[in-house]
């Protein structure tokens, strides 16, 4: 890809809309997710688990599995997951005042599955576990949608599940099983990741190497400081949210991008890692179906971690609001707005045709806010996610309606337009839509004067 950054000022135009209560996300917009954690090692897994529970209404949670990871090969700790769920149960009545689709405490406790307490780097006969057998059951479910595995430690339990299916079923059945698997792995923390990639390169695998550090490193450090925790983390869940993570005081949560990547907020299609979202942006590695971190431009230079920390104000404001939901009624806290684009109120990515030298009209009319807050509009080009090196212009970038001027040089390429709608509540919360403009014609080579960077 050719990378160019265009920055557009945030709108000051405002619109008043009606309020509603309580809220939910349609089930078809929720990802089926199995969390695989080496909790009991780094304290930041406990931090990530609390955030995951506060976002549990945004997913179809299918499993909470224990395992091992870096420097943690002694004993799995399902008790720590259960402890966090018990604390979640104490605030659940309050959370359901804001989103009625939060799962029950009993449902989540039933999804805790223990991994193999033994060699963390091997798969094979006699190595099955409660977790690996549960993974097979999840993937075998008649639901045709993919199952996402957010892997915070090592993938041994998933690898064992694949091994068992490989040895007990036909090649066709194995292929059908693997076709439903989607992996977002934070650093591939045991040797079984290599085994899967070598023996089953067709498994969809996002390898989040180092980019996860963008969740807490660089960027605005006041949003991940110990002081931020002191100001906003409260109530029963505070007991299970360590204020001091491994080698990092304050918010660390290195595993959190694995599930923020799947949030149904309208920013991307998780099946297209090149698009980028709160969990990072990824491109094909050239090895099987593996994706590796891409780079976005920060002040004109490629920056790996920026693909995550560019979104930090938004994802930390969302986190702050969820903490508020733990103890306050609906009318005293903020909730996310709903973004509408060209009359479409879904969360899907829109694909629209475009012509070189012409304009495309985009409208956020019909967007709303459940609290009746005013809305600010921001249309901008996510240049790194597209294939056009030429810089489009946006007229009305801070208004509900915008015009995107398609350069002649964008012929045969794609342009990604992001709509951000941010309310005026406290904290301000943001909803998104993405429009992929598919420009007609044959691709035009980049000129020598174009500001570009291969990704």
Write the layout of secondary structure elements.
Layout: E1 31-37, H1 44-54, E2 59-66, H2 78-95, H3 105-110, E3 112-113, H4 130-140, E4 147-151, H5 156-168, H6 171-179, E5 181-185, H7 192-199, E6 204-207, H8 226-232, E7 244-245, E8 248-249, H9 257-260, E9 282-284, E10 290-293, E11 296-298, E12 301-303, H10 306-309, H11 312-325, E13 350-354, E14 359-363, E15 375-381, E16 393-395, E17 401-405, E18 414-423, E19 430-439
Parallel strand pairs: 1-2, 1-4, 2-3, 4-5, 5-6, 6-10, 13-19
Antiparallel strand pairs: 7-8, 9-10, 11-12, 14-17, 15-18, 16-17, 18-19
Summed up:
This protein has 455 residues and is an alpha/beta fold.
General description of the model:
- The protein has 2 domains: 1-23 and 336-455, Immunoglobulin-like (Sandwich); 27-309, Ribonucleoside hydrolase-like (Inosine-uridine Nucleoside N-ribohydrolase, Chain A).
- It has 11 helices and 19 strands.
- It has helices at 44-54, 78-95, 105-110, 130-140, 156-168, 171-179, 192-199, 226-232, 257-260, 306-309, 312-325; strands at 31-37, 59-66, 112-113, 147-151, 181-185, 204-207, 244-245, 248-249, 282-284, 290-293, 296-298, 301-303, 350-354, 359-363, 375-381, 393-395, 401-405, 414-423, 430-439.
- An 8-stranded mixed beta sheet has the order 3-2-1-4-5-6-10-9, sandwiched between helices. A 4-stranded mixed beta sheet has the order 13-19-18-15, with no helix packed on it. A 3-stranded antiparallel beta sheet has the order 14-17-16, with no helix packed on it.
- Helix 1 (44-54) packs parallel to helix 2 (78-95).
- The protein is globular.
């Amino acid at each position: 890809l050719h990378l160019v950054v265009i920055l557009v000022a945030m709108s000051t135009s405002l619109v008043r809309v009606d309020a509603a209560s309580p809220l939910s996300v349609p089930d078809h917009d929720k990802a089926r997710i199995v969390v695989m954690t080496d909790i009991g090692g780094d304290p930041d897994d406990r931090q990530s688990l609390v955030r995951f529970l506060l976002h549990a209404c945004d997913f179809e949670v299918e499993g909470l599995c224990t395992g091992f990871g870096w420097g943690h090969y002694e004993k799995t700790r399902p008790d720590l997951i259960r402890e966090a769920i018990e604390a979640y149960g104490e605030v659940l009545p309050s959370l359901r005042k804001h989103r009625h689709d939060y799962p029950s405490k009993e449902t989540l406790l039933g999804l805790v599955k223990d991994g193999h307490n033994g060699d963390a780097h091997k798969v094979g006969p006699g190595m099955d576990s409660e977790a690996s057998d549960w993974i097979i059951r999840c993937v075998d479910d008649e639901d045709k949608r993919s199952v996402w595995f957010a892997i915070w430690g090592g993938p041994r339990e998933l690898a064992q599940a694949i091994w068992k299916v490989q040895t007990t079923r036909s090649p066709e059945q194995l292929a059908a099983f693997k076709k439903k698997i989607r992996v977002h792995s934070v650093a591939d923390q045991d040797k079984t990741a290599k085994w899967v990639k070598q023996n089953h390169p067709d498994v969809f695998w996002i390898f989040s190497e180092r980019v996860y550090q963008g969740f807490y490193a660089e960027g605005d450090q006041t949003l991940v400081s110990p002081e931020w925790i002191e100001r906003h983390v409260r109530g029963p869940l505070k007991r299970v949210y360590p204020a001091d993570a491994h080698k990092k005081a304050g918010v660390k949560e290195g595993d959190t991008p694995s599930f923020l990547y799947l949030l149904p907020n309208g920013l991307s299609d998780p099946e297209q890692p090149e698009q980028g979202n709160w969990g990072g942006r990824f491109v094909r590695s050239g090895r099987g179906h593996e994706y590796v971190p891409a780079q976005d431009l920060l002040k004109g230079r490629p920056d790996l971690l920026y693909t995550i920390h560019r979104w930090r104000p938004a994802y930390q404001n969302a986190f702050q609001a969820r903490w508020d939901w733990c103890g306050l009624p609906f009318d005293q806290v903020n909730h996310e707005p709903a973004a509408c684009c060209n009359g479409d109120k879904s969360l899907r990515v829109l694909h629209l045709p475009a012509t070189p030298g012409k304009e495309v009209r985009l409208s956020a009319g019909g967007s709303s806010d459940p609290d009746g807050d005013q809305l600010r509009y921001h249309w901008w080009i996510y240049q790194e996610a597209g294939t056009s090196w030429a810089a489009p212009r946006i007229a009305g970038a801070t208004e509900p309606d915008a015009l995107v001027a398609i350069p002649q040089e964008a012929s045969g390429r794609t342009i990604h337009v992001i709509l951000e709608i941010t309310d005026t509540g406290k904290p301000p919360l943001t909803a998104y839509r993405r429009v992929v403009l598919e420009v007609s014609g044959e691709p035009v080579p980049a000129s020598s004067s174009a500001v570009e960077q291969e990704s």
